[in-house]
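For reproducibility, we list the full input for the 2-acetamido-2-deoxy-beta-D-glucopyranose complex.
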Amino acid sequence: MMEGTSLRKLVVSIVIVMMMVELTKAELHYVGGNKAGWTPNTNFSEWTSHEKFLVGDWLFFGFNKVLYTVFEVNETSYEKCIVQDFIKNITKGGRDVFELTEAKKYYFICKDYCFGGMKVAINVQDIPAPAPAPDKNASPSNHSIQVTPVMVLAIAMIWAFLFKYY
Ligand SMILES: *[C@@H]1O[C@H](CO)[C@@H](O)[C@H](O)[C@H]1NC(C)=O
Ligand SMILES: *[C@@H]1O[C@H](CO)[C@@H](O)[C@H](O)[C@H]1NC(C)=O
Ligand SMILES: *[C@@H]1O[C@H](CO)[C@@H](O)[C@H](O)[C@H]1NC(C)=O
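The corresponding predicted structure, in tokenized form, follows.
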């Protein structure tokens, strides 16, 4: 049978991992605002103006793979709609994801419809350090550290193991 102390350590470790997962949760952005948003009819600058992209987030390109494609290109190729010598071909089945691993500007275009406006520039920022005090003027964000049910449960469990069963 497991000793009380090692069981306690195990539970505390599990709880800490759960809390870390909760705090570093990445966001999945549906490009264009929905699961089929990668189309020529979407206003992508309008869409990005309402989104906040942080390092570790993911993009989801949902589209008809018969008609459309997704390529990561550099800024020049984005402006001029040039697919040749692209950085990455993201086109697979039309439900394709891309991880934003760096704080920089990423550029994506559709090969045949880029001139029609089917292209998007994504400005990725570093994850901000937790603010010392809540700012009433700050816009709500999914990334801010919030007290979630998992955290409440975690704290309750740590409390129980450290004090009640000691
Ligand atoms: C896209 O949205 C932006 C910002 O709302 C607007 O300025 C622009 O005219 C729109 N473009 C098109 C093609 O509708
Ligand atoms: C962008 O990529 C194209 C094609 O590979 C290349 O010719 C061009 O020099 C690149 N531009 C920049 C600014 O890196
Ligand atoms: C991009 O990838 C798709 C799916 O793997 C493939 O069918 C297509 O030929 C590729 N396009 C280019 C230009 O490499």
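Residues 74-77, 85 surround 2-acetamido-2-deoxy-beta-D-glucopyranose (ligand 2) (CB under 6 Å). Helices lie at 4-23, 44-48, 75-80, 149-164. Both points were considered when choosing residues for closer inspection.
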